[in-house]
Amino acid sequence: MSRGRFITFEGIDGSGKSTQARLLAEALAAEGRAVHLTREPGGSPGAELIRRLLVEGAPDRWSPETEILLFTAARRDHLEVTIEPALEAGKTVVSDRFADSTRVYQGAARGELRALVDRLHEMMIGCEPDLTIVIDMDPELALARGLARRSGEDRFEDMGAAFQHRLRDGFRALAGNHPDRCRLVDGNRAEAEVAAEVRRLAMGLPG
Ligand code: TMP
6-203 is classed in which CATH architecture? Predict the structure, then answer.
């Protein structure tokens, strides 16, 4: 059996990437592909426990270093328990966020920690998606959408508009630096229009 494809969605809070990840998973399943939809932080029972430590509570609850370790621990468990077995079984894995979120969020919060993020990734994760869809979105609009939901998971949204602007710049730069696997998609459009473009990009993936 051939190994499955690994597709990730990235973007700022409220960019619509979770909806787009779900729509793509549904479209692929409707085509008869075996698909596993998952998310980060989380995606396995252990990583979901770590998620609660990360997304709830005061913005300054963790030092940046501790936060990077927690995200990496959650990712390692997600990879071992969920992603790798699904890819081995030939499934397409669609993940709402993965390592690029740590590069951009933790890098945006404290730029000098990017080297630590990269070293931990190399040591503990060591793989990249086949395709990364970066949903680009106006931060003011996205922030209003994200906070409007008031999910109780607003720790990063609570870091404010300037932080969201840095994140957007970070995701755009990341997409530009990895043209092999990243595609920047304009999220300031109707949901169905964005979904159609995402489908086209995913269908173009070999395998
Ligand atoms: P979500 O809202 O997309 O579920 O993600 C939860 C929050 O965690 C979101 O504000 C982004 C943040 N995050 C990071 O800061 N670093 C990471 O590595 C990941 C996966 C998420």
Answer: 3-Layer(aba) Sandwich (3.40)
